[in-house]
Amino acid sequence: MDRSNHLPGKLDGKPSMQVIRNITWRLIALVFFVLLCYSLLPLFINSGEGFATLPLNTIFGSFTAIAIGFVVPSKLLKIPQTLNHEVGHALAASLMGESVHLIRVEIDTSGVTYTMGKRSRFHSMFRSAGGPLASAAFFVFTAALISGNKAVLWILFALIATILITVTTVRSIWGWVSAAIVIATLGQSLWASIQIGSDSIGNATFGIWSASTWNIAILLSAYTCGIALRYSIACRKPWSESQDEAKVGRALGVHPTIGGHLILILNIVLIFAAITMILGWVNPWTPSPFV
């Protein structure tokens, strides 16, 4: 179970540490937003070039990873997915100018994020939706940057952001373990990208893609999307007022079930958008040949 808690009073801890934490999250949110907009430009400039079609093993692997995450979600990999979920809450709060206090992730795959700032229906809706949509949004981010031949930017951002978030905000042993695994994988990704050098994705050989962890980045983000999609379907009819889907519904002034279905629809739309980038389409409404 996940909880995104909004603190009404002052945050605990040293004021200086909270200032550092605020600067960290503002910077991460700004860079994430700029990189996402930059990578999505081909969708709107009508250049006709679209995205680089990834190798067939990556395309089929992405579909397989989503299916496996949906049908057989591993509890071990649910922990990093929970961390991603909580970061989504924190990132959404930070984008609205709120302060992020701490993130906790537990072995039972539960998590909690504490934030403080403005209290309004819009803030509650955006903050609550950030968690359930985090995996799909990160899948879009990953697919857009890597399919747009900007894999090194993706690796650098994800590595630096994970380190900063872990040091300043994560406050649980399993959150640190999850972050350590992610950091190790991203570090190896950066090393692989340096070795590959200037090879473009479109011309990369099967051997390069098998050896590099750019492939792993796509597959892991696709797998977590499968887990998130399964959870979103299960929560389309929230059974607790504390669930994010119920909070979204209340913020919109509608029944919690409508909030749950809205989250589900947005997840499907984001996943579809990411898949179109992996397939190399010009945009989601202009299909291209599969091979």
Explain this structure.
The chain contains 11 helices and 3 strands, in the order βαααββαααααααα. By secondary structure, the chain is mainly alpha-helical. The chain has one domain. It has a 3-stranded mixed β-sheet. α1 runs antiparallel to α6 (151-168), α5 runs antiparallel to α6 and α6 (151-168) runs antiparallel to α7.
What would a concise description of this structure say?
The protein is mostly helical and 291 residues long. The chain has 11 helices and 3 strands; from the N terminus they run E-H-H-H-E-E-H-H-H-H-H-H-H-H. It is 64% helix and 6% strand.
- Structural class, judged by helices and strands? mainly alpha
What order do the strands of the largest sheet run in, or round the barrel if closed?
A: 1-3-2
End-to-end Cα distance: 41 Å
Low-confidence stretches: 6-11, 197-211
**Major beta sheet, specifics?**
3 strands, mixed
Whole-number total of structural domains: 1
Total number of beta strands? 3
Large-scale geometry: globular
- Mean pLDDT equals 80
Residues in β-strands, percent: 5-15%
Secondary-structure element string: EHHHEEHHHHHHHH
Computed Rg: 19 Å
Helix residue percentage: 55-70%
Instruction: Give me the number of helical elements.
Output: 11
Fill in the keyword field for this structure.
291 residues, globular, 3-stranded mixed sheet, 11 helices, mainly alpha
Secondary structure topology:
Blueprint: E1 2-6, H1 15-39, H2 56-71, H3 75-95, E2 99-105, E3 111-116, H4 121-130, H5 134-147, H6 151-168, H7 173-196, H8 206-211, H9 214-234, H10 244-252, H11 256-278
Parallel strand pairs: 1-3
Antiparallel strand pairs: 2-3
Helix pairs in contact: 1-3, 1-6, 2-9, 3-4, 4-10, 5-6, 5-9, 5-11, 6-7, 9-11, 10-11
